[in-house]
Design brief:
This protein has 340 residues and is an alpha+beta fold. It has six helices and 21 strands. The longest helix is centred in the first third of the chain and has 20 residues, at 5-24.
């Protein structure tokens, strides 16, 4: 095919421009481009994960679930203390190799203890060292294809200070009100919710179980591929009004106010390994109910452990004293969630 003069001129000009650009690069920059032979290429793998340093503020004017009526969460805000930026967070994301040990839970504490930065005679530190020291590394061992996300702090402060580690990430959660509405009007369940505290190590793992299944103790069949949540946290100051609501479907309170709420794990018989923080774990996957045969979202292996202090407990606007829960534990809990 005959090429036009204009086309040849443009091609020649483009080629010349590329050569000029290449030759204009500084010699040190040119030196960075080196061909790799097959032997070198065979050692190149994609095993490095991703680290995200995060700061944010979140606000939602209204979040609603609408059926015949609606349930509304109004004026939700997530931030740092006193409505500052929620910051100093570091999220690491890895896809595990077979048997790979990745950061999990209080593994950073174990690493510091092994390095002599923390007192190994401290029961919590000793527990972390025993739990998270794995095959010469620190963390938890995972299977091939597991997606592992670990939330910690960008800067933990003094590496020899447990307080700096535990208080590195502060948060504030505020909700104006939680209401229901329908044809008969609306009702306020909760109002003026404010929770301040610290976020401890938090892990979100998606286990790669393929198409495998397993049977729970109650007979429910669940997928071997599941989402696993583990978190530690502490509420240092909280307040809310219970206008009309059930608590764990057992107690009904109306016109109740709470001030100075604290949620932690500093007393009782189950403090070991929690560094004074409350903890929550749960697993979520596709499942089938053994009782009804319905398929849905299985929430299983749920566990929550905490001590709860309510130093100001008001009824009808008048304080009736303080309320405390020690070794408050939710265990052996399974839920199958589906529509009807």
């Amino acid at each position: 095919m005959t090429q036009s003069l204009a086309c040849r001129r443009n091609t020649t000009s483009s080629t010349l421009s590329l050569w000029v650009l290449a030759l204009s690069l500084p010699l040190p920059a040119m030196a960075e481009f080196r061909p790799l032979d097959d032997g070198a290429l065979s050692g190149v793998t994609g095993q490095a994960g991703v680290t995200i340093e995060l700061e944010t503020k979140l606000s939602i004017d209204r979040f609603s679930w609408i059926d015949e009526g609606s349930l509304n969460v109004n004026g939700l805000r997530l931030s740092g203390h006193n409505d500052t930026v929620l910051d100093n967070m570091k999220l690491t994301i890895d896809i595990a190799g077979d048997g790979e040990v990745l950061e999990h839970g209080f593994s950073e504490i174990a690493r510091r203890a092994q390095a002599g930065l923390l007192d190994q005679n401290d029961p919590d530190v000793a527990d972390a060292l025993a739990k998270y020291s794995v095959a010469g590394s620190f963390g938890k061992q995972f299977n091939s294809g597991d997606l592992v996300m670990h939330l910690g702090a960008t800067d933990y402060g003094d590496p020899s200070s447990l307080d700096d580690y535990l208080q590195a990430v502060d948060f504030e959660l505020a909700v104006d009100s939680v209401t229901t509405s329908g044809s008969e009007g609306s009702a306020t369940l909760f109002s003026d919710i404010l929770l301040q505290g610290h976020i401890g190590p938090t892990d979100l793992v998606i286990r790669n179980g393929g198409s495998s299944t397993r049977t729970l103790a109650n007979g429910n069949e669940v997928s071997g591929s599941e989402l696993q949540l583990d978190t530690h946290f502490e509420i240092t100051n909280g307040s809310l009004n219970w206008d009309a609501a059930d608590v764990i479907l057992l107690f009904n309170f109306a016109a109740v106010g709470i001030e100075g709420l604290q949620i932690h794990n500093r007393r009782g018989d189950d403090t070991l390994g929690h560094f004074g923080m409350a903890s929550a774990t749960a697993k979520l996957s596709r499942g089938t109910s053994s009782a009804s045969g319905n398929e849905g979202l299985s929430v299983h292996d749920v566990e929550f452990r905490a001590d709860i202090d309510m130093p100001v407990f008001k009824m009808g606007g008048t304080s009736i004293g303080s309320v405390q829960f020690t070794d408050f534990a939710i265990t052996n809990t399974t839920m199958m969630v589906y529509g009807h």
